[in-house]
Inverse folding.
């Protein structure tokens, strides 16, 4: 199962493009947040992460939606790897799925 995560920073922005891209990429479930990426507590991301199981795939509209700093992104990707959850980004060339890993 492919699970997606989308985030916008303010209510003046829209999640539509990210949600459409994640759905088009095959995400069966998309979790969302309307909150600054600088916030550590993001309920939608927390829900997405708790929903994931080994061999499932998590997808993001972009790495900037997951975290604001490189350290936080690396920590998150390491957590997914430790849980044997595959990851791919729709906008960057990051894909840890067996077909995407090289």
């Amino acid at each position: 199962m492919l699970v997606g995560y989308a985030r916008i920073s303010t209510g003046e922005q829209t999640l539509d493009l990210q949600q459409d891209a994640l759905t088009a990429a095959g995400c069966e479930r998309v979790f969302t947040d309307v909150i600054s990426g600088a916030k550590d507590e993001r309920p939608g991301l927390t829900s997405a992460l708790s929903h994931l199981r080994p061999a499932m795939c998590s997808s993001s509209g972009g790495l900037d939606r997951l975290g604001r700093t490189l350290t936080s992104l690396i920590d998150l990707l390491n957590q997914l790897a430790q849980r044997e959850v595959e990851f791919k980004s729709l906008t960057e060339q990051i894909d840890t799925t067996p077909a995407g890993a090289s």
